[in-house]
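U., I forgot to send this yesterday:
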Amino acid sequence: MAKDRVIVIGAGMGGLSAALLLAARGLDVTVLERAATPGGKMRLVMDGDHAMDAGPTVFTLKRVFEEIFQAAGLDFDAHLPVTRANILARHAWDASSRFDLYADMDASAEAVTRLAGATEAQGFRNFCAEAKRIWKTVEGPVVRAERASLFGLIKGAGLKGLPDLLATSPFESMWHGLGRHFKDKRLHQLFGRYATYCGSSPFLAPATLMLIAHVEQDGVWMVEGGMHALAQAFANAAASKGAQIHYHAHVQNITREGASFLVSTATGETYTADDIVFNGDANALAQGFLGDNLRTAAPKVTQAQRSLSALTWTCAARTHGFPLVRHNVFFSNDYQAEFKALSAGSMNYDPTVYLCAQDRGDDDSANGQSERFLALINAPALGDTKTLSDAEIDLCMTRMTDRMAACGLTIERTPERAQITTPTDFHRLFPATGGAIYGRPTHGWRATFTRPGIRSPIPHLYLTGGSVHPGAGIPMAALSGLTAAACIMQDRISR
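Result:
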């Protein structure tokens, strides 16, 4: 066995980040990915010659990725061209009510004034200040920690820091917290949607999640080649530092062989390693998917503890009527009813629709040609127990297109060419999840402290990805990989 050999299972963002940093430090790194390409949830689907992102589409916290590349002795910008968006998202409630959120706070405040008046604009500025304050309070002791500990957080803050911690509003719901800033229903709904970025309900998530507004205000970037290009850039960088990446490598079992691990794949290959970085859903370990002796690596997640899933539609199509930009949101009439239905495990609701126009930027002019689209609505994570029928899927698609049409958008979609991904499909792609895309939801003040940490209870087995600390989202997954690499390097010293 090669000395200091690390096996990374899964080429999602957490695994790729860890692989890049560990390979750059001279360790023998092998990445085993069961899919044909890197990225995990940052996957591609094809519609003829059109390659389309079918996963995350919003790229934030660019400085995290720059930091990882710099730590590996590389220049992020040289590997991946990106452009900063001026319009963060375009929002609509009906054919006449539209609102653009800008990267420039003053421009957004002016837009709020036009939409809802000067009082709401001041509320927006106050909201942004609170979001920034929360982020600055939690970034170091929570987001960048290997695990969030309430005792450690309080101890680290000390008596003088307790007011700042309490000011992050952990005991207040996000919906209630937003009510301190906004009276206009539309703005309340718009900023409440940030809870869904980590698969949560704004009615159950803590107001702490208002920090997401600051993260977006810090910069939303458009990636040349789409979000999958981000994963490919990390894979290429890791390979340039000596990491071996094997695709179609489906890991089926991991056992301990003395102080080492023996990793077996579905096609009969075996690998040995001193350390394992697991970049799959932690619940797969808890359910014994990779062997009974790894069940203690993470707590088992029940159906009630799952985050939201989604129903997504990807297709190349022409559009008419609505001036699309890259990121667009078409809101339902009753947000509370929407989340009440989701909590009850039902798809029977008027959905809020997110639409990514992947060939657009800030310019909302169309060229009359087919464009690449990803549309998404929330869904309950019941992919392991309930399969949507064709009739149910058709009804969801009708409600989705009706919601966009009510806001003025017509899509000339071709049903036989559209690719639809349901919670059952997500469960198949990401085993042991039930289709949950974000691991556990961030509901209640305890949620952050119940997520598995980077160091698992099994020595030399480390966890990365959206199901573990610091949480869901591409930047958080990347940070989990950065922290895992730091833990491995630190632990090697004491061997």
